[in-house]
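Fold Annotation — chain and its backbone
Next Lines — sequence and tokenised fold

***
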Amino acid sequence: MTQTSLALTMGEPAGIGTEIAAKAWRCLRHAGPSFFLIGDPRQIQDVPTALIRDPSEAKMRFGDALPVLPLALPAPVQPGRLDPANAPAVVAAIERAVSLALAGQAAAVVTNPIQKSVLTAIGFPFPGHTEFLGELAGTGRPAVMLLACPGLRVVPVTVHMSLRAAADRLTSDLIIQHGRIVAEALRQDFGLDRPRLVVAGLNPHAGEEGTMGREDIEVVAPAVAALRAEGIEVRGPLPADTLFTPRARATYDCALCMYHDQALIPVKTLDMDGGVNVTLGLRIVRTSPDHGTALDIAGSGRADEGSLVAALRLAASIAATRSKAV
């Protein structure tokens, strides 16, 4: 367990972020890991709060109240109703959390879900958290999205784009770059001495020897060969329709998938409420719940905190693994 608390961002104020933060505190207050929320304390309901001025206060206060590092919202919040006036505060919370993690004042950053449409409306130039965090705390390499649940880790090589654009974007170099980052992260963050990777084919049946497209022969297979030549244990391209059965999942530590839904569908099918989004290739540890803002149930009290609890626990675990390796 880390000695420094985790920084949790408020996410979209009209969504379920503060509700699941309060529920997560109830779940973790005795066993930890400790965290503090960067957000507006006026949003917190049903649990005691402790306003803190410095992250070092969070661990001491955590057993009795949810520690909150205040960041005021400029406009009143109505659950389920987006207001661009509050969008700059959402961005500021992420920036504050990252700066604290970079300074060693937070063990990791855990982000509540944001609403990309309202951020785009104020000129936010990034398609999502991953790309923004890469700008704030990157290492010169692309930030990579890994989704994890018990029994499965997946990485989409292309992410938030149309399927047509994803096929055009996919290159051997992009797959190789992701494979290197994933193999390194599995060693550094998950403590796997010799991680085993598999690579899904782009086309049905991994192209079936070119009869269903030549991308798997001309793009995917050369990338797999190059990664293997670097000493990475990797297989592929393999047909995606049989890659996620229980028997298949037991043979690898992470699957590289060629597009967004190829990766996210199996994770969300296996564990919709416990999946975690991890950003690889950063100077800090960052995790997030694997769900959205749930505007349709915001304010109803029905939000499930399971994915956030899993994200907090995994962030603490990764931070502890990294600290042992230093």
Observations:
- The longest strand covers residues 144-149.
- The chain has a mean pLDDT of 94.
- The radius of gyration is 20 Å.
